[in-house]
Structures are given as C-alpha cells and as structure tokens.
C-alpha cells in the first residue's frame, strides 16, 4: 500500500517535465520569473508558474497548485488553466523543457493574450511579485 502525501496529490495536476540539460534548472527558474500577469502602470510582474524539483523529478506548477500545500484554496479557474498551459507550451517550444509522455501540451491552444513575457534585457526595470514562496511549506 502506497501512502500519498499532500504534495503527491498536488503534483498529479502538474506537468512533469524533463530539463533540456542538467544545468538548465536555474535557466528555467529565471525564465519563469519573467512570465505571468503584468501591471504596466507599476512595472510589476506576477509569475504564474514555478518549477518544483522532487525526488529527481521536475514539475511545472501553477502558483495556486503550490498555494494549496499551505492549506489555502488552490482552485484554478479556466483562465488560470489557459495561462498555465500556455506557459508550459512556451517553455517547450523554446526547448528549455520536454514533457513526459503523460502530457501532450500541443493539445492545448496558446493564449498569448493571457501572459506577459518580460525580455531578459528589461527585467531590471520590473519588480517581480511572487504570490508563493517555494520551500515555505507548513507540514
């Protein structure tokens, strides 16, 4: 009998990925920090997706997936799912990640109107506002 933990339950809804190369974890983290919802007036970016490493596996998780680990309500609405899959597909098209065989992201249409991508050269002009801090789980 396998005992599942809360994190295992959350990860079943996340896209498992394989990094293009072993050293790409930080590149993916940095890229995800520049993709999300933007406030142009305040020059703030709210990253929507994070990468999580657990027992040799990597997962792309919407911040609401991770929020539920702390006892919050982590329910994604239709717009959240569209944004989530768009970001996952972008990373795959940029060859930063490959999805595991369980996921076929090309089945999900891109919704570029739902995401803002801050160019690397402009990231210093923007303030990153993270709604969830990885590694701060309450157990």
Structure in words:
The protein has 139 residues and is α+β, with helices and mostly antiparallel strands. The chain has one domain: Translation repressor RegA (Alpha-Beta Plaits), CATH 3.30.70. Helices cover 25% and strands 24% of the residues. It is built from four helices and eight strands, in the order αβαββββααβββ. It has helices spanning 6-11, 25-32, 63-67, 78-93, and strands at residues 15-19, 35-39, 44-47, 49-54, 57-62, 97-99, 116-117, 127-128. Strands 4-5-1-6 form a four-stranded antiparallel beta sheet. Strands 7-2-3-8 form a four-stranded mixed beta sheet, with no helix packed on it. A hairpin with a 2-residue loop joins strand 4 and strand 5. The longest helix is centred in the middle third of the chain and has 16 residues, at 78-93. It is globular, with a radius of gyration of 15 Å. It starts with 5 loop residues before the first helix and ends in an 11-residue tail after the last strand. The relative contact order is 0.23. The mean pLDDT is 85.
């Amino acid at each position: 009998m396998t005992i599942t933990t809360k994190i295992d339950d959350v990860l079943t809804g996340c896209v498992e990925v394989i990094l293009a190369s072993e050293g790409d974890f930080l590149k993916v983290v940095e890229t995800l920090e520049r993709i999300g919802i933007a406030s142009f007036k305040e020059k703030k970016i709210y990253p929507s997706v994070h990468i999580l490493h657990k027992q040799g596996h990597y997962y792309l998780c919407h911040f609401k997936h991770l929020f539920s680990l702390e006892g919050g309500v982590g329910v994604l609405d239709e717009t959240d799912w569209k944004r989530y899959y768009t970001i996952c597909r972008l990373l795959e098209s940029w060859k930063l990640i490959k999805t595991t065989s369980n996921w076929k992201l090309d089945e999900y249409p891109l919704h570029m109107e739902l995401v803002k991508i801050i160019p690397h050269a402009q990231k210093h002009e923007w303030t990153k506002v993270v709604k969830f801090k990885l590694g701060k789980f309450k157990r």
